[in-house]
Amino acid sequence: MPDVLLTLTARSDGTPPATDLGHLLHKHPDRVQRFEQSTGVLHVLYPQADERTCTVALLLEVDPVALVRGRDGKDTSFTLAQHVNDRPYVASSLLAVAMGRVLRSAMAGRCASRPALVDHVWDLEVRLPAVPATGGSAQVDRLFAPLGWDVTATAPPLDPQVPAWGDAPHVDLVLRGRHRVADALSHLYVLLPALDGAKHYWVGPDEVDKLVRVAGGWLADHPAREEIARRSLAHQRSLAADALARLAEVDETVPVDDLLDEPADGTTPDDPAPAPPLARTRQDAVVAVLREVGARTVVDLGCGEGALVARLLDEGFDRVLGTDVSVRALRAARRRLHLDDLPERVRARVDLVQSSVTYTDARVAGFDAAVLMEVVEHVDPPRLPALARAVLGGAAPATLVLTTPNAEHNVRYPTLAAGTVRHHDHRFEWTRAELAAWAHDVARTYGYDVELRPVGDDDPDVGPPTQMAVFRRTTTDPQEDR
């Protein structure tokens, strides 16, 4: 039976022991486990497991006949290519699907037995002896290197006996880097099918949801994000465009270039410039308000991976503080800002701290302005009074700038099912009327005036994609109205 192989090796100095990889994967190093798949059988085993080095191997035995049979067991294809191909031998969407089913909890970053392990950064090595790569080693490097992997991709000759035939359309791939296990698995889960470019199952709108859910933390920041989206979604341009637009909602770190509407043969000098991406438009709107009110010191509440903090630093604000409840996000922000390498005069202007927007924190008080950019929708509705109390009552900035999705605009996302939100972590999404009602209520309670503004193209029927509320304090003493 043909075999597809992947090995993942974790190395450690002993703290934690490398064998804790088994806890993260929910697969015990002392057992060989077998999982039936629709196209074959996946075996999970550990060739090596000690405190310093632990290697897990995924061996997928592919049934070539099962690949060309429908669910009723009847052969639905008569072309020779369906029977004679490389699918049973290479790491492709077949392996990615098997990983998603068997390593689901690990990929989601869940580990009940050792919760602290989820955020541990390991020295990892991934080996895939046969990966489809029609673009050769350069294509593999283009996809994996920006994620922090040291890539070694070797293309063997198509036939050693006939050098003139050139290299095979596959590479022997080795990846080395320091990553969380969940991140490494998500990279493989998304990029293997992207390299494959020929998923073995139907690609529909639900694949957009899956891509945003799995890769939302890193794909929007990837320089090859358009290529990855297109290839992951079977070159369906409408799906890829929607995925990139929704990723821009999830990840505020990088504007998503609106390139998917350009003609297949490229643009000409006479083509109109593409509309600015929403993430950039949102940042521009926030900065414009901060300039308008004359703010010099700003706290970015729920700063995520630090995109707005970096922008504010570049814009020359005197003092910028970024806060987030997620330690992982703050680590990413620290890397983005190169915080440890900044000149002292710049470093003195910026800081990052862990804090929750629903708890009063003296460290976030005393700023000219506070920003809640795409944060409020991640808070459970019963906690919204606590957020208002902590931000408008406790921190009491002279100005608060809040942005949030406009739920009415969701109908303009073609793959977003009716009644659903743009991202799985959104606890709700307000209509324009709902934001107005909440904003005016909390403004009255805490001594503020509030102005509502559109962000992005203001659709005459459903409004803008993002809505903004600008709160200005009207009381001298933040406590006098309470």
TrEMBL record:
Principal EC category: transferase
Record carries keyword Manganese: no
Catalytic activity reported: small RNA 3'-end nucleotide + S-adenosyl-L-methionine = small RNA 3'-end 2'-O-methylnucleotide + S-adenosyl-L-homocysteine + H(+)
Domain Methyltransferase, residue spans: 298-390
Superkingdom: Bacteria
Cofactor(s) listed in the protein's UniProt record: Mg(2+)
Enzyme Commission number(s) of this protein: 2.1.1.386
Pfam families per UniProt: Hen1_L, Methyltransf_25
Region of interest called Disordered, as start-end residue ranges on this chain: 258-279, 454-482
Domain Hen1 N-terminal span(s) in chain numbering: 5-248
UniProt keyword list: Magnesium, Metal-binding, Methyltransferase, RNA-binding, RNA-mediated gene silencing, S-adenosyl-L-methionine, Transferase
PANTHER family to which the protein is assigned, alphabetical: HEN1, SMALL RNA 2'-O-METHYLTRANSFERASE
Family the UniProt entry places it in: Belongs to the methyltransferase superfamily. HEN1 family.
Name of protein: Small RNA 2'-O-methyltransferase
Organism: Cellulomonas oligotrophica
